[in-house]
Amino acid sequence: MSPVAEGSSGRVALVTGAGAAEGIGFASARALAASGAHLVLTSTTPRIFDRVDELRAQGVDARGLVGDLTDPATSTSLVELALEFWGRLDVVVHNAGMTSLSDPSFSTGALEEIDTAHWRAGIARNLDTAFYVAKACLPSLCDSDAGRLVVVASVTGPVMAMRHEPVYAAAKAGLVGLARGLALDYADRAVTVNAVAPGWIATGSQTEHEARQGVASPMGRSGTPEEIAAVIDFLASPRASYLTGQCIVVDGANSIAEERR
Prior knowledge:
By secondary structure, the chain is of the alpha/beta class. It contains 7 helices and 7 strands; from the N terminus they run βαβαβαβαβαβααβ.
C-alpha cells in the first residue's frame, strides 16, 4: 500500500470518463486531487494515461485503466486497482456516458427512427454503466468512514428535454432514480449518493449549437467543467455528510427561465 503523503486527506477516489483534457471528469479529478485524494482514472482510450501523467507531474498519486464500462468486469477491475494500491476506496464519481454523433450505434433521432439496438446501446452507455460501477464499488464505500458516490446526469431527462434525444433523456433520468434509490438503501452505512445535472458546459466536445445555446442562457455563457467539478468535490467531501439522494442542477438558471434572449 502506498504511504499517505503529508497533508493528504488519504482518501482514494475513482473517476470514470476522465480521458478528455477539457472534460468534466478530468476537472473533477483535479479538484479531488487538490483536496488530497489519491486517484484511479478510467476512460475507453489510452489517452487516460496522458491525464494520469499530468497529475503525477503535479505530485498526485494516480493510476489509470483503459476499459469499457458496459462490461461489468471493468468496474470490478477499477475497484481492485484502488484496493491493490491503497487498500480502500472512499469516493466514486461516475462521469462516463454521453451521446455520440460519430458512432451510428448511438445515434440520436425521433422515436420512429430509433430501433431496439439503438435504444439498448444508449441505455447501456448511460445507465447500465452506472449500475455496474455502483454494484462494484458500494461494498468498499461502506467500509469507508465517509463513502461518497456521485453520478453525473444532465438537465436533459431529469429536468428538461431536447428534441430527438429520447434515449439519452430516459437514461439520464434513470440515473437520478438510481441515485435516489441507492441513497435510501445505504444511508444507514454513512454512504451518500447524489446526482449532478449539468446544463450547457464548455467542454472540449461542445458543439457550435450547444455553445450558442449557452450564450442564450440567463448568464450569457456556458458553464465550465471546473464549475461542475466544484459541486462534485463538495458532494464528495466529508462536509456533505447529511446531503444525499439529491439531484443538484448546475445550469446558470437556464432551466428556470421562461424567456430566452
